[in-house]
Amino acid sequence: MEFDHIIIRYGELSTKKRNRKSFVDKMKSHIRWAIKDLKQAKVTSSRDRMYVLLNGEDHLEVIQRIKGVYGIQSLSPALKIGRDIEEVKAASLYYFEQLSKRPETFKITTRRSDKDYPYDTNEMNHLIGGHLLINNDGHLKVDVKNPDFNLRIEIRREAVYLTGEIIEGAGGLPFGSSGKAMLMLSGGIDSPVAGFLSMKRGLEVECIHFYSPPFTSERSKQKVIDLAHKLAEVNGSIKLHIVPFTDIQVLIQKQIPENYTMTSTRRLMLRIADAIREKNEGMAIITGESLGQVASQTLESMFAINEVTNTPILRPLITVDKTEIIAMAREMDTLEISNQPFEDCCTVFTPASPKTKPKREKVNYYEGFVDFEPMIEKAVQDTETLHISGEKQDNMDETIEDLF
Question: pLDDT-derived band of residue 345, with 50, 70 and 90 as boundaries?
């Protein structure tokens, strides 16, 4: 005996009314991508649920691959069996033995759409419940009000269906259902987390990284590529735009007073990111900023930096503290990569005393002595775009070793 299908529940997608089909279709395509090499598994959907028909594929492998797909509220392995009572008993015991966590209490909930079945719902609950109690050495108890596990039995004319364990999904909205935005990916801990949270709300994300050789190394660039690989695992691929930023950054250091260099650097980065966004038909820019974390993330700094664009700036982490961000990065498996000691272009040029309350009129005055526009156009023109695959990286450590 083995599970033959997985039930997938939509959660938030159920509220989408006339747009529901487009959301469901996107989620279905992402599930198909996640299990593309499990050739026997098939995906079908109905109005309220989606099903993966296993056709012999291992249910644990399928669940592991799809539970991170955005849009899935929860999922359950399920059995379709014959109507003979002895077969139902055996299947109930099998389901119980396959649970990921052993319960201490349980109950049976029977639903009988076939009223001709020889046992009514109460008789079924007693028969199957008694069978589980007898076969669990006295360690299992019945709790009909708040059980650890509820085995649901549905009796239809064509078959009997068993389900019960509810496994939490990723939630959110299917990737790409909310439009496209550009993520400013620095290589630190925060920006990859902001990227994942944005994708969870249905955004299609492209990454922008600012690169300043020889002040930043090939290893810092590889670190960002590795983070992009992690983000690409959500949907199979992602674009990474690598912007040559050395000339602009050197000019900022020469022409702008030291305590305003950080503000101008952020403003120039935002202007370039906005130009790349427009070129690639994005509708917003995402940053990993958290209010008050560093000098560039005070409200006054963000007010001065935002002046250079009317494009929406999305800051998913704005009210989240560093401890929470680190916990999310660990959960998303990006923390180890972000902690690699390779500096990005922001950190290597950080002034000793950056202005935490910069004034717009002052930064405009300082920038007014330099025509940055041709340099911005050249940086956009010379930007290198990589198409990063979401395939798992088994040789990442070896690649890092080679760079030494």
Answer: low
